């Protein structure tokens, strides 16, 4: 089984503009490998041999969490090959209701991108939101580290997530981009061994070329999950990089492709 734990799609009516906006924000340094729609992700999964994709929306303003949930409820019946996380803006006064609705709807987690949402990940004022999510037995998925579309923002720095993990150690938490793209010399001492999970989305190529990245994986192989960040990385290329690896054992490949994520997500 291959589970892509980190993908994005958008409503068909806004997908083209959403993709273009993100590319423009990176000054053209990103390439989209799908159209960012439900159907284009399914085609990508078919081509790559991906069985299940986890879709991660982000509530960019208070109130947005409810409309995201409505959109998810429309999409869920269309395919049993996508697992949707909800999202909530941490400054939304109605956060408890949104989280409870996500739980009641059968969702298994909540996605945050603190830089896009405008809050420092370790703002203790939002710890009550994290507590509510974990008390509802939902996982938390965070963008972590540098984001090329917001290069001057430190809201997702490795140091901030170290503070979060000191408070929420061994919680159901996944940090994207191996804890921080190209910052693994700091990820190893600050994040490793704290019981959180990491995905390889967007950073697999860099990890393969980095002594620190390879060491980060070696120290945490039971906590690494497969992800691509589709549409911003090609699912087929990422699957092949893992399948064709001469350094990963078959057991390690299975852990990354599906066994580790199944410790958090019910399939």
Could you describe the 3D structure shown?
With 267 residues, the chain is an alpha/beta fold. It has one domain (3-263): Metal-dependent hydrolases (TIM Barrel, Alpha-Beta Barrel). The protein is built from twelve helices and nine strands. It has helices spanning 15-25, 38-48, 64-75, 95-104, 114-117, 127-135, 158-167, 184-191, 204-209, 211-219, 235-243, 250-259, and strands spanning 3-7, 52-55, 82-84, 86-87, 109-112, 139-142, 173-175, 197-199, 224-225. The protein has a six-stranded parallel beta sheet with strand order 4-5-6-7-8-9. Strands 1-2-3 form a three-stranded parallel beta sheet, with no helix packed on it. Strand 2 (52-55), helix 3 (64-75) and strand 3 (82-84) form a beta-alpha-beta unit. The longest helix is centred in the first third of the chain and has 12 residues, at 64-75. The model has no long low-confidence stretch (mean pLDDT 96).
């Amino acid at each position: 089984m291959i589970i892509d734990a980190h993908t994005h799609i958008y409503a068909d009516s806004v997908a083209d503009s959403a993709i273009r906006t993100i590319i423009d924000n990176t000054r053209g340094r990103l390439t989209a490998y799908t159209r960012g729609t439900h159907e284009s992700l399914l085609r990508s999964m078919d081509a790559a041999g991906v069985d299940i994709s986890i879709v991660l929306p982000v509530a960019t303003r208070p109130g947005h969490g409810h409309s995201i949930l409505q959109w998810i409820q429309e999409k869920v019946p269309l395919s049993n090959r996508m697992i949707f996380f909800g999202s909530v803006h941490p400054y939304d006064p109605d956060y408890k209701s949104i989280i409870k609705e996500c739980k009641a709807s059968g969702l298994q987690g909540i996605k945050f991108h603190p830089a896009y949402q405008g809050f420092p990940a370790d703002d203790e004022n939002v710890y009550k939101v994290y507590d509510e999510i974990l008390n509802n037995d939902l996982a938390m998925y965070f963008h972590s580290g540098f984001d090329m579309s917001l290069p001057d923002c430190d809201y997702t720095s490795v140091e901030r997530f170290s503070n979060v993990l000191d408070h929420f150690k061994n919680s159901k938490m996944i940090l994207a981009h191996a804890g921080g793209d190209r910052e693994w010399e700091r990820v190893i001492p600050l994040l490793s061994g704290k019981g959180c999970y990491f995905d390889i989305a967007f950073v697999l190529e860099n990890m393969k070329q980095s002594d620190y990245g390879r060491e980060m994986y070696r120290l945490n192989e039971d906590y690494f999950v497969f992800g691509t960040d589709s549409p911003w990385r090609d699912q087929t290329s990422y699957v092949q990089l893992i399948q064709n690896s001469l350094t990963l054992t078959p057991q390690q490949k299975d852990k990354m492709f599906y066994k580790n994520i199944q410790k958090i997500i019910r399939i």
